[in-house]
Each structure stands twice: as C-alpha cells, then as structure tokens.
Amino acid sequence: MLELVEGDITAQEVDVIVNAANSSLLGGGGVDGAIHRRGGPSILAECRRLRAGHYGRGLRVGQAVATTAGRLPARWVVHTVGPVWSATEDRSALLADCHRNSLRVAASLGAVSVAFPAVSTGIYRWPLESAADIALSTVAEELAGETSVKLVRFVLFGQQAYDIFRSRAV
Ligand code: AR6
C-alpha cells in the first residue's frame, strides 16, 4: 500500500523513516536537521560509528544505511543520499536507487511500514514533479516484489509538495 500525507516525517509512527542525508552522515539542514533534532544525540552517535567503520569515506549517493531512531516514534532511521539536481546530466537512476536501497535496508530489518520525505527536492533542488514520478514508480515496483514492507507513506512538507505528489500518483 502506498499513502501520501502532508506533514512532518519526524512525527510518523512507522517502523522506518527515511532521512534525506548527505554523504558525511553527520547531519545538515532540512529534514536531516529535523530528524537529528527531534531524535536526539544517539542517532548522530551511531552515524559517527558508521563513519569510523565501514563508511569511512561516507555514504555514496543512492546508497542507504540504517541507524536507531533515538527518541523518534519510529524504530529505525534509514539514511540515504539523494543526488543534487542537474539540468545537464540525468541523475534519475540515482534518485531511484535511493528509494530502492532504502526499502531494501528496511526489509533487511523486517520493517513493515516505511515513511519517505521527498528526497532531493529541498536543498538539492530536484523539481517536485520529476521527483514524484521517480519516487512513486520505484516504490511501486519494489512493493510488487518480495519484501516485508507492506506500507510506504510519503510525507510531504507543505501543501504544494503534497498536491504535486497527489497529481502524479495515478
Ligand atoms: N518532514 C518532511 N519533509 C520535510 C521536513 C520534515 N520535517 N523538513 C523538510 N522537508 P531537504 P535534500 C522536505 O532539503 O533536498 C540536508 O542539509 C523539504 O521541504 O531536507 O535531499 C542534508 O544534510 C523537501 O521537500 O533534502 C543534505 O545536505 C524534502 O524534505 C541536503 O539537505 C527534502 O529536502 C539534502 O537535500
């Protein structure tokens, strides 16, 4: 099942919330800032451990990795790094990878419900219409396959983002 809601992803009572992070995994603005603020320091502590271990060079664009969700109602945060929008280079496959890999990491944890923000559409400037098409089609494809995930909720920040996602979901 695929749901669209307008709201704040940090308030979602789901197994996994996806964070639109950056390669450093060490926090930032936008939804990343909100997740670390509301989730508390244990998320950053785990991100630092990831950087000290397997992710010494950071998380690559399109990849995903899980941490605790700290004080958030969710059980885990899956951090993914969206591509920065480019008018001259087609980076759609990387944005699709973010969604696919986030769902696969969620499934590896046995998660049933997952909430996504509109990855890359803020500071990384990806146009909402295009991001919606890529996100919705990739998630639908993944849900049609073998996965523990039964519910994906897109949590859109503001009426405009919600309306655009709504208009692209057929
Ligand atoms: N809940 C749901 N959506 C939100 C929230 C929230 N609390 N806050 C913002 N959004 P962005 P990006 C929406 O900029 O474009 C960070 O600094 C926002 O309106 O958070 O992937 C990272 O560290 C937009 O539609 O992520 C990276 O450096 C969407 O979330 C960089 O920003 C994504 O906006 C990543 O940029």
Automatic annotation (TrEMBL):
Gene3D superfamilies named in the record: Leucine Aminopeptidase, subunit E, domain 1
Enzyme class (EC, first level): hydrolase
Keywords: Hydrolase
InterPro entries referenced in this protein's UniProt entry, alphabetically: Macro_dom, Macro_dom-like
GO molecular function, one term: O-acetyl-ADP-ribose deacetylase activity
Pfam families linked to this entry: Macro
Residue intervals of the Macro domain: 1-170
Known EC number: 3.1.1.106
PANTHER family tied to this protein: GANGLIOSIDE INDUCED DIFFERENTIATION ASSOCIATED PROTEIN 2-RELATED (PTHR11106), MACRO DOMAIN-CONTAINING PROTEIN (PTHR11106:SF27)
Protein name, per record: O-acetyl-ADP-ribose deacetylase
Species lineage: Bacteria, Bacillati, Actinomycetota, Actinomycetes, Pseudonocardiales
